[in-house]
Amino acid sequence: MGRESLIDEIRTKLGDAVEGVSDSFGDPVLTVRPSSLRSLMTALRDAPFDYAVLLDLTCVDFAAGEGRFELVYHLYSLSRNVRLRLKASLSASDPVAETLTGLWKNADWLEREVFDMFGVRFTGHPDLRRLLTYEGFEGHPLRKSYPWRLAQPRIPMKDKV
Amino acid sequence: METRIQREARPESMLINMGPSHPAMHGTIRIMLELDAERILNAEVEIGYLHRGFEKTCENKTYFNLLPYTDRLNYVSPLINNLGYAMTMEKMLGVGVPERAQLIRVLMSELSRVSDHLTCLAAMAMESGAFTVFLYMIKAREFLWDVIEFTTGARMTTSYIRIGGVRADLHPDWRGSLATAVRETRRVLKDVSGLLDKNSIFQGRTRGVGVISKEDALSYGWTGPCLRSTGIPYDVRKASPYLIYDKLDFEVPVGEFGDNFDRYRVRMREMEQSLRLLEQVAVLIPDAAPITGEPANEPAEAIRVSRRQKTAARIRLSPNLEGSEKARYADLLTSDKPAVLGSTACGVVVPPKEDTYTTMEGLISHFLFFMNGHGIRPPKGDVYFSVEGGNGEVGFYVVSDGTDRPYRLHLRAPCFHVVSALEPLIKGRLLADIIPTFGSMNIIAGELDR
């Protein structure tokens, strides 16, 4: 099945959730409404689209210029051998998105990483806390407002388990 | 600060810390365990001990300068990281790569893949008590790294694969060292198969341990040998071929049960396929034509001569020096210009040193490549590209705002997804089962924590 027809199929069946379709260096990109992110992802994961793998989730900080954060999801369909990129814009003042933890199991850690690095909160996440940095770390390092090489305050030594 | 496991722990069970600095935790990772005797009731994995802000650092480096940082991601197969980054940028810039450079890239990728698998299995076997296997495999890895070192000048921090090609031609004696490496690795693989395949201690610790189903593996975003051990033949080299992989003959070995033993077997069989690929590529790479006839000057002499008059005489440079041997440039580095140019025309590769040293135009193009605000400036937009790394799909996601530095660079680290499944795999098992399970996953903290 060609890629164009696949995008058409997504638009026909899930048109309400899709804000726009674009092409980025030959890859299809869907811009989706954050409010319908979870329902759209559920539909994409199951047949007929069958995007069984959440390849990647990351975020881009456009807070300074455009006043938004952008979540970037990469899905992969094993049966059709196609990748798909989805983007959802969140407001810079209150970045909140729905969690995908029930849909893909790696969404747990991926969302924790985005929370850690960007301060984006995911509603419904069972255990949303920092992943790569530590409790007591101040700020979200991949935000553009976070200076490169900022010193962090000292934290008390962790309790021994 | 109380951890989740401390809050949930039963009062009578024992809490124990494994790592972050533990002989069997190669790479710094901490596993907190709630134990009932040797049975694991609950586990919590904590990562980030090697987090060094790779992505933030890249936002502050130019596209050319951040390449050495990619060496430090998966430090066992740095050439594949170099390749992933270089190909992502080539996709964004819309430049092609000469055929010889593509063949060299395949050669380097497969050498790295074998050394990656060897390191993983060596550590896994050593931690299960088979120290002989460790020594054999590390010996084989040294032969492979000899080939890499002859050409790139480094064992691990190679920075050899550049945007638009490769840094220098292969070492003149590469065929001999490659033949030795392939022969020695084959011998070691045979020995290791003999030592482990029917070894009841090894079987007992790996068969039926760390079992993951196909559905779970996909749901956790597993790729690479770990996913293939469950029976799903997903390999980026076959699914979306890059370089010349579609013209080469190789198989994608798969496992059956998704346990530790299958992950071991898949890696062993993949190494055999990689050795086959190495032999095929070695045949395809033609011998470099010797550059003879013209007189050649030492650099100091060449500079002295060129001060007085323009000279056509060649400069004799070290074969591993950046951009050396202008005559071979066409074979190794692209001459394409990026799709969108800055204010001044500048290619995507370092200009030949011969020109930089001897002509004004060469010096200008050198400065245009390296000066702040110039250099490689891809068009605005975002791009994702992935290659098959040692432990799965290594993907780079780059957002460009049209300047000489990435606005955002994200690495899709394959072992991040694999480690996120560690907790359920060890829960309910014995303490000793962590070691082979953890070992067979091939965790590289450099790319896990970035």
Explain the overall architecture:
The complex is a heterodimer of chains A (161) and B (450). Helix content of chain A is 23%, strand content 30%. Chain A is of the alpha/beta class and 161 residues long. Chain A has one domain: Beta Polymerase, domain 2. The longest helix of chain A is centred in the first third of the chain and has 12 residues, at 3-14. Chain B has a domain at 54-286 and 379-449: Cytochrome-c3 Hydrogenase, chain B (Orthogonal Bundle). Chain B has 20 helices and ten strands. Chain B has helices at residues 4-8, 54-59, 67-71, 78-93, 99-127, 131-152, 174-196, 200-206, 214-219, 224-228, 236-239, 260-284, 299-308, 329-332, 353-358, 360-370, 414-419, 422-426, 434-441, 445-449, and strands at residues 14-18, 30-36, 39-46, 161-162, 165-166, 296-297, 314-315, 381-389, 392-400, 408-412. Chain B has a three-stranded antiparallel β-sheet with strand order 1-2-3. In chain B, strands 8-9-10 form a three-stranded antiparallel β-sheet. In chain B, strand 4 and strand 5 form a beta hairpin. In chain B, helix 5 runs antiparallel to helix 6 (131-152). The model of chain B has no long low-confidence stretch (mean pLDDT 85). The chains are: A alpha/beta (161), B mainly alpha (450). The interface between A and B is large, with 40 and 50 residues.
